[in-house]
């Protein structure tokens, strides 16, 4: 397998003192004002090159906004880059605006992270601030590259969002095949080559989702501004919660099976909505977003762990008998979650059968690819 660059955005909480918080806030504000000032200058004078813009804005930026030399340079670079990307997107004759209070930091120029200290340029020079290191340790293996970070502030707290890049080699050989069926009753049903089945229950998720749905419905009827605000908050909370569930399960799978594993999932990208896949009486829950996210998480975590994800055609995975290959729509009894083969009378849970069939598709694929290679 060829190497693949994996990008993960690390979100790190930094721990400034009250004084440092003020200084960081002042810096973020000054940078935003300077960005908008430099953007106006560039737009009005039609100067979109860094060196030319520098001549016009450098001194005002230092005297008006109190920016230090390094930061003034960074601001101009950010402005020119913004106009360049607008132009490549076909947007011309529009002034670039910087609305959000955030500060773009280039690695080793505007910021660095070492052991437990974040060092950043401010209006009063460089300061060093401790940060929460938990979960960050593995990024300091010397192979991860730190991208351009954003310093953002929310409710008096400060965070760094850093895109981290590393090239992973993936797996060289496959020792394990694992079929995974995603669903509603069970978030994931897993079948491996030792014949072991693991069910990750979806009951709690189902309950939580229908609870959220009820609250949403009540709020939608109110139609007040505060109800709308609560509505959007609830949506965010629900998504965060689901994201957490997906992280937990994918992490558990990758660590349970270890390196050189081929995880086999249904390719659901062709399905218009994942609700097409789920049972009729569960149609009220839209899960496509969640399935996509699960697949994504499993894919990058596998790759980081010398394993792989194979997406296969979902056709007939729930209708085919995993023992005798007999295919019949009526093999599956959706209501009682049971699969019963019309030919060999093999019986099992229907999600388990889907996972078994995915496992078989994975081993077929591997046999095919070794034949081609041989
Ligand atoms: Zn059968």
Characterize this entry briefly.
The protein is an alpha+beta fold.
Distance between the termini: 16 Å
Report the strand count.
16
Radius of gyration: 26 Å
Strand fraction:
15-25%
**Integer count of domains:** 2
Mean pLDDT: 87
Considering DSSP H and I runs of 4 or more, what fraction of the residues is helical? 40-55%
- Largest sheet data: 5 strands, antiparallel
Number of helices: 7
Q: Which distinct ligands sit in these coordinates?
A: zinc ion
Helix/strand-derived class?
A: alpha+beta
The sequence of SSEs as H and E is EHHHEEEEEEEEEEHHEHEEEEH
Q: What general outline do the C-alpha atoms trace?
A: elongated
Low-confidence stretches: 279-285
Describe the model.
With 374 residues, the protein is α+β, with helices and mostly antiparallel strands. It has two domains: 4-168, no CATH class; 176-204 and 251-373, Nucleotidyltransferase, domain 5 (2-Layer Sandwich), CATH 3.30.420. The protein contains seven helices and 16 strands. Strands 1, 2, 6, 7 and 8 form a five-stranded antiparallel beta sheet that branches. Strands 11-10-9-12-13 form a five-stranded mixed beta sheet. A hairpin with a 4-residue loop joins strand 14 (332-333) and strand 15. The longest helix is centred in the middle third of the chain and has 33 residues, at 225-257. Zinc ion is lined by residues 321, 323-324, 326, 341, 343-344, 346.
């Amino acid at each position: 397998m060829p190497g693949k660059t994996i990008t993960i955005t690390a979100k790190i909480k930094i721990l400034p003192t009250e004084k440092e918080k003020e200084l960081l806030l002042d810096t973020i504000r000054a940078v935003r004002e300077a960005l908008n000032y430099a953007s106006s200058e560039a737009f009005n004078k039609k100067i979109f090159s860094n060196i030319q813009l520098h001549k016009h804005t450098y001194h005002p930026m230092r005297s008006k906004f109190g920016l230090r030399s390094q930061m003034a340079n960074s601001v101009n670079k950010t402005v020119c880059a913004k106009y360049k990307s607008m132009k490549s997107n076909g947007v011309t004759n529009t002034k670039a605006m910087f609305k959000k209070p955030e500060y773009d930091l280039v690695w080793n120029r505007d910021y660095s992270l070492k052991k437990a200290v974040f060092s950043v340029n401010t209006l009063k020079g460089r300061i060093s601030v401790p940060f929460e290191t938990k979960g960050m340790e593995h990024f300091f293996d010397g192979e991860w590259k730190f991208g351009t970070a954003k310093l953002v502030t929310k409710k008096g707290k400060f965070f760094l969002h850093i895109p981290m890049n590393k090239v992973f080699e993936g797996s060289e050989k496959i020792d394990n095949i694992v079929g995974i069926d995603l669903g509603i009753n069970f978030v994931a049903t897993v079948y491996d080559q030792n014949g072991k089945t693991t069910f990750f229950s979806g009951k709690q998720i189902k309950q939580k989702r229908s609870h959220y749905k009820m609250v949403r419905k009540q709020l939608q009827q109110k139609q007040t501004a505060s109800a709308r605000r609560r509505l959007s908050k609830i949506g965010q909370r629900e998504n965060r919660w689901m994201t957490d569930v997906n992280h937990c399960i994918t992490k558990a799978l990758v660590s349970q099976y270890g390196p050189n594993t081929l995880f086999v999932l249904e390719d659901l990208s062709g399905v218009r909505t994942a609700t097409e896949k789920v049972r009729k009486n569960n149609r009220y829950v839209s899960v496509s977003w969640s399935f996509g996210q699960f697949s994504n998480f499993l894919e990058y975590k596998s790759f980081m762990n010398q394993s792989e994800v194979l997406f296969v055609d979902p056709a007939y995975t729930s209708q085919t008998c995993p023992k005798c290959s007999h295919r019949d729509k009526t093999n599956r009894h959706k209501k009682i979650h049971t699969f019963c083969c019309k030919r060999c009378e093999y019986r099992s849970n229907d999600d388990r059968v889907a996972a078994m069939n995915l496992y078989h598709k994975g081993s077929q694929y591997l046999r095919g690819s070794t034949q081609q290679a041989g």
